[in-house]
Write a structure and sequence with these properties.
By secondary structure, this protein is α/β, with parallel strands linked by helices. Bound molecules: zinc ion (2 copies) and fe (iii) ion. One zinc ion is lined by residues 108, 110-111, 129-130, 132-133.
Length: 757
Amino acid sequence: MICLNIAIRGVVQGIGFRPFVFRLANELGINGWVKNTPSGISIVAEGTADLLDMFVVRLRLEKPALSSITALEKKILPHPFGCSKFEILSSEENDEPAALILPDLAICSECKREISDPSNRRYRYPFTNCTHCGPRYSIIQALPYDRAKTTMKNFFMCPECEREYHDPMNRRFHAQPNACSVCGPHLELWNSRGTPIEKHDSALRQTAELLREGNIIALKGLGGFQLLVDATNTTAVNNLRARKHREEKPFAVMFSSPEAIRYECELSDGETKFLQSVQSPIVLLRRKENILSRIAPNVAPGNPQLGVMLPYTPLHLLLLNEISFPLVATSGNISEEPICIDEHEALQKLHAVADYFLVHNRPIERYVDDSVLRVTDGDEMLLRRARGYAPLPILLEPSTPISLLALGGHLKNTIALQKNNMLFISQHIGDLENLSAQNSFAHTIEDLSALYNEQPKLILCDSHPEYSSTQFARNKYSTVHAVQHHLAHVASCMAEHHLTKPLLGISWDGTGYGTDGTIWGGEFIEWNGKEFLRAGTVHPFSLPGGESAVKEPRRSALGMLYELFGEKIFEKFPNAENWFLENEKKLLLKMLAVNINTPRTTSMGRIFDAVSAILNVRLRSGFEGQAAMELEFAAAAVKTQRYSFHLTEQHNAQCRFIVEWKPMIEEIIDDLHNGISCRIISARFHSTLSAVIVSAAQRMKYSDIVLTGGCFQNQVLLKNSIASLRSLGYVPYWQKKIPTNDGGIAAGQIYYHHLTS
Ligand code: ZN
Ligand code: ZN
Ligand code: FE
């Protein structure tokens, strides 16, 4: 008889791990106990050596589908306890928390079946959940994960729920948010003054009726408020746009089933898998051409893609079952503020946007937006990492002794925390453009540090002196290291692929503060195994009006054309005459001539903008990246000749080569002059950029090539580049689990420090 102590770390709490251990021990005739500890699961098992071997092997092999084991340590105890049975003991909490917090999980098939079965006691109950599904991260207040430390603590289970909760053989054994209509949270429907008008199931039925009539509903969902409206009703969608001050940015749509989606969009098996996964993200799909679409044209104007999702909570599912149309489901916020989580806050902020509020009394501890992904090359590519993914860590090897906190960038901000060998990335916080977002940013820092009981020793931030995240770091902490933006992008991609060997990173985005004080964004970064260096960049140009060029692609175009033609712009490219009023034109040219408010940039994002304007695709942008997106959508899916460019060598250790784009712009203008279609020119432009990447790879002689930065959200660029690199034997890496946009900067800052210290 041997007594074995087994400690398991990883995602092992809140998903039925202990009942699984209990059943396995009983099956094998092993005695002892299992309990949750702050760092995971602890088992004491007594039996023969053979049986215990079998037990450990089967623990690993048969563990619950949602769990993952990061470490399993065995220790033989000298004196068996002589247990007579196997038990599940209650949690202990003196140790330091290191157990992983699970993300919120989409409703499972068993719970789905129960809420649609009239004979089941959970029939039509919108807060049904079990150990396989339901809220986690959005309700946890502290570790270990126990009901008393969640926002469910004030709901007392009825005898039936209590019985399920304590029965190790039940699916709801220790399902912390376990509830039913007798004892759990319930719905209320409020008008826009906050007066309750319906309760319980009639609130849900009434909401469906209001949606049918074209009303805008603010729904308190899983990780925050959403604004819902009939996606087939143009007037209703227009009202939402007008009231939310969101003119063109596409809305996501929730459909009742994959079949309903398939009517509107091309849907591969891989995409279906992600839509139906426990993460249940918004998936960007290609819309079908030549169909009589039901979706109102103003849902995603001029966009060949549609962000779609399936109902992921019982509440969404019941609501979609009541109606026969898909719903626009967009973040419940105003002007890019963080989404509301509290019904009173929502009422105050959204009363002029929503006609009615469907709320409930289960508090949301922290906001968690819907995640957004797209499938590329059969794999996911997360563009917004939040619900379903946060706060699961990326594992780093080896671990560093000190804990690090990284504050990320400015747009699409996330923060990251490193503890031991785990890199935790916060949920998407958003653009730190307003006070409300900055408060959420500060709150998330406190929240993440408190959850993992970690006081970070070193703070990492972007090197842009004016980012509010940088200023926050400098004001609040004493030990702060800045990491250059484009180096952080490269490190971010390296972190997710566990890369450590020398390589070339292509770091292309809209804006980042360069070490020379100019605006970088078309960078070639070398990792030589010791340090990150800027190997090359693109020929710089001036941005008339600086920051304002981000919203006006025509300014980037003017800057590039000025670099090319000087004062002769309008002679060489008369189309540009119509971009500005006469006096604007004079002023901008003067600014360029005397170098006032015309910062120099090497931004690839601005090159995309400029070409978009030159092709008259878009002169002004309604939202970040719009001009580049429309240029991508314009590209014909045909093989084309690339435009000319060359790499010039520099005698400069800070930057060894420059990509000269002037011949490309001249040829684009020639093509336009010769009546070549915008579709072909855009395709040629994209293949030129992939050829630039290949040339840089050949120049630098590394076989591993990292493709990162916001520009690689562009599918045409990404796919072309992967194919070109592979055909020549290079190994391209791109970001799948950590966003390639600035949502990945915080993780990159940590990995950068990890590699260089
Ligand atoms: Zn379930
Ligand atoms: Zn109950
Ligand atoms: Fe960036």
